[in-house]
Amino acid sequence: MIKKLERGTQNEYFRPGVLVFAMICIAMILEGQAKAEPVNPGVFIEKVANDTFAAIRQLRKENNADPKAFEEIIQQTLLPHVDHVYSGLLILGSSANSSAKQDIQAYLDVFKGYIKITYASSLNYYQDQTVVFEPVKHEKDKDKVAVNAIVKDKGKPDIQMQFKLRLDKSGDWKAYDLIVEGVSLVQSKRAEFAPIIRQQGLPGLTALLAKKLQ
Fold this sequence. Notes:
- By secondary structure, this protein is an alpha+beta fold.
- The chain has a single domain (10-213), classed as Tgt2/MlaC (Nuclear Transport Factor 2, Chain: A, Roll), CATH 3.10.450.710.
- The chain contains 7 helices and 5 strands.
- The chain has a 5-stranded antiparallel sheet.
- α5 packs across α7.
- The N and C termini lie close together (10 Å).
């Protein structure tokens, strides 16, 4: 059902399997950070990523294909570290300025669920790929940072990725965009949603996303 919404606008690098793999990596970057002071976003990447993917491999070893188990991984490790509000507003772009506050809030509520269900349903694509992160030099006065990575899949070309993170008001790093081979997820979704908003308004887009979640 989700594919129907994305038809004709989806970049091949944003297919569900690559997206969920990449976005879980974002969660790995952020997991385990100290609350008192934000740390270098790249410090915890390798350890946390290995721990999380080990949990996924354990599900496979147990032949656990229950979608709820995958959704639980998303709920616990991904969603708390994704700024769906900031990302959702970036995707709306100027449409947010001409939309009623209640319509924007309704859209953001559904948008969060849209992300969760999409990524959870795509976890089955994970097949023990390797991700290599570049060292991150973070300046303390910066509230945004980019983390570069290379996804290596045996027998397939490497995939270049960049994760966009920002500090929220509580001082935690959260992901708001993903760039794969030069293509931004935010910009891709903006191009996909824009014609729907023009034709049906923001409530129309929200209703369509909500229908996909059913």
